Amino acid sequence: MNKNQKPGSIVGKVIIYVALIVFAITIIVPVAWVFMASFKRNSEFIGAGTNPWALPKQLFVQNFQVAFQDAQMGEYLLNTVLVTVLALALILVIALPAAYVLSRFRFKGNKILNTVFMAGLFINVNYIVVPIFLMLSDWDKALGFQLFLDNRIVLALVYASCHLPFTIYLLSSYFRTLPKGFEEAAYIDGCGYFKTMVKIMIPMAKPSIITVLLFNFLTFWNEYIIAYTLMDEHGTLAMGLQNLMAVERTATNYGIMYAGLVIVMLPVLIFYICVQKRLTEGMTLGGLKG
């Protein structure tokens, strides 16, 4: 033990570590249990002497087969992937130039635009989903056929539009921390504003970009209210999971129900593992440079 450390600081660190370990256990144990339960037969959940914490007697992968075929989770998964990828692409195309201009240039109306985007952070999209539905419904009635409702491209546009303020706010905060010397050197070498942004500034902001991508990915992937309101046949994974849970809970097919949960969780866990290091950099570099 370091002699210079005070007893109070040691106790504080112990309390923090204990709290972090308890918090980690409360997250890891339920997730691990869901993965374990997804491979169990239904008889291992029901009946006398069954232990919910016991390991599966064998890996019953038919639960996933039933979830994909009978509940059409594969179709819901494809719809969710298409909507999420398109929404993320739209956000990057729109938010990156907007955040760069708002954070690095001064022009008439700059403060007003920043204030408008800041105000957008306080608007909960769930409160305006009904007006959005009525607006799209009116457009379909005017056309005489359904185009805007139950459209994956329109759903992606709604997702991207609703999360632009959050994305622009985070990216602008990071762009402000970058030194101006890099831009000045690029201008001297003959680069224009657009080329400087694409070749110099955006690569430097990669940790922050990955951070907003992850946050938006989690939101789009798990979103239910907007998708349930605007979609029908081309529903998302959250809608499919809700339908699967309702049917299998009634039929007491718990293994299939947990298999559906794993189908939803697994892509998120894989994506997080892939970008965890960049995510940590994006959440800390801004504070270190500020």
What is the secondary structure topology, with strand pairs?
Blueprint: H1 7-37, H2 62-69, H3 73-104, H4 110-120, H5 129-143, H6 152-175, H7 181-188, H8 193-204, H9 206-222, H10 225-230, H11 237-250, H12 254-289
Helix pairs in contact: 2-12, 3-6, 3-9, 3-11, 4-6, 6-9, 7-8, 9-12, 11-12
Subcellular location: Cell membrane
Pfam families: BPD_transp_1
Domain ABC transmembrane type-1: 77-275
Describe it.
This protein has a single domain (64-289), classed as MetI-like (MetI-like fold, Orthogonal Bundle), CATH 1.10.3720.10. Helix 3 packs parallel to helix 6 (152-175), helix 6 (152-175) packs antiparallel against helix 9 (206-222) and helix 11 packs antiparallel against helix 12. The chain starts with 6 loop residues before the first helix and ends with a helix. The protein has 290 residues and is mainly alpha-helical. Residues 286-290 have low confidence and may be disordered. The relative contact order is 0.14. Helices cover 74% and strands 0% of the residues. It is built from twelve helices and no strands. Keywords: Cell membrane, Membrane, Transmembrane, Transmembrane helix, Transport. Pfam families: BPD_transp_1. Belongs to the binding-protein-dependent transport system permease family. The chain crosses the membrane at residues 14-35, 76-100, 112-133, 153-171, 209-231, 251-275.
